[in-house]
Amino acid sequence: MDSWHTNRLSAQQAKLVETWLPGVQLVSDLSWDLSDTAVLEVESGQRRHIVKAGGPANHHIGREMRAHQSWVHVLSLQNRAPRLVHADGPANVLVSEYLEGCVVEGMDAEYAAETYVQAGALLRAFHDQDVRRDADYEAAATAKALAWLEEPHRIKESAADGARAILSAC
Questions:
Q1: Which of 20, 58, 79, 92 is 20 to 30 A off residue 147, Cα-Cα?
Q2: Contacts for 160 with CB less than 8 Å, ≥ 6 apart
Q3: 30 and 37 in contact (C-beta within 8 Å)?
């Protein structure tokens, strides 16, 4: 039988998690298998956590660590985002609190206006923390969108022409 981490973590990552969460047991493997990011719901004692880990070239875990350490805090204070419990950048592994919830895709909540009202409120709280101006961002995003429109796509030509006109006017 596989270990608690279903062989998704390196030996170093597993050892760190076992040090941080004595007696850790797997509850569910929530990995999406779109990259080498492992997402594991685990239990240690009477508490549940999420373990996220990636391979050496995976930059997503480091970005998430930085987000927890700087921007996600305001949402975790409202119990609207998990609190970071442990993180090790060189090992590319983090542990956060488990926050009860589910993906709304395929559920009635996917079509409920209140779902999007709540999401909007969370985005507002998140973006109210700081404003950063990047003089080159909009031009780069516009150029990228225009380049996409030059590639084969499923957008009707009239809509694509309209999008090109709007983007070119920016």
A1: 58
A2: 149, 153
A3: no
**Residue 39 one-letter amino acid:** V
Helix (H), strand (E) at residue 50: strand 47-53
68 in Cβ contact with 105 (< 8 Å): no
Q: Give the Cα separation of 133 and 74 in Å (integer).
A: 21
Question: Cα–Cα distance between 90 and 55 in angstroms, integer?
Answer: 10
Rounded Cα distance between 102 and 99, Å, is 9
**In 10 A of CB 89, how many CB atoms?**
11
Sorted by where each starts, the structural domains of the chain and their CATH numbers stand as: 11-97 (3.30.200.20), 137-169 (no CATH)
Beta bridge partners of 25: 43
Exposed / middle / buried, residue 52 (Cβ in 10 Å: 0-12, 13-18, 19+): buried
- Distance CA(70)–CA(54), nearest Å, equals 21
**Sign (positive or negative) of CA dihedral 42, 44, 50, 54:** negative
Alpha helices for 34-136 (secondary structure H)? 60-70, 73-77, 113-127
| 63-83 per-position pLDDT tens digit | 999 999 888 888 888 888 999
134-167 pLDDT, tens digit per residue, is 889 989 998 998 888 888 877 767 676 777 777 7
